[in-house]
Amino acid sequence: MNDYQDFTRTTAIYPKIKAKEYTLLGLSGEVGEVCNTAKKEIRDNAPPSPNMTKELGDVLWYLARVADEYGIQLEQVAQKNIEKLSQRKNRGTIGGSGDDR
Description:
Elements: H1 2-9, H2 19-43, H3 51-69, H4 74-91
Helix pairs in contact: 1-3, 2-3
């Protein structure tokens, strides 16, 4: 994952002065496109769109850029998430709501 994140730096073309804002807005927009693709599948009772892979790739790119702009490695993000979910699973609190389950 960190290799991918390093690669994204070579394709990152945006104003550095607004890098955090730009990448966060980009991530939000791309997540919207993923949701819109799924919505059309539901509306049209269609099979999964071949565009979903491309749209998820765009989400991944922006996620990598957001993490990078915050000085966080994607591998660290994934590892922390594994730890959090494993703890919740072990406590039987993976379902439900709230941050401190």
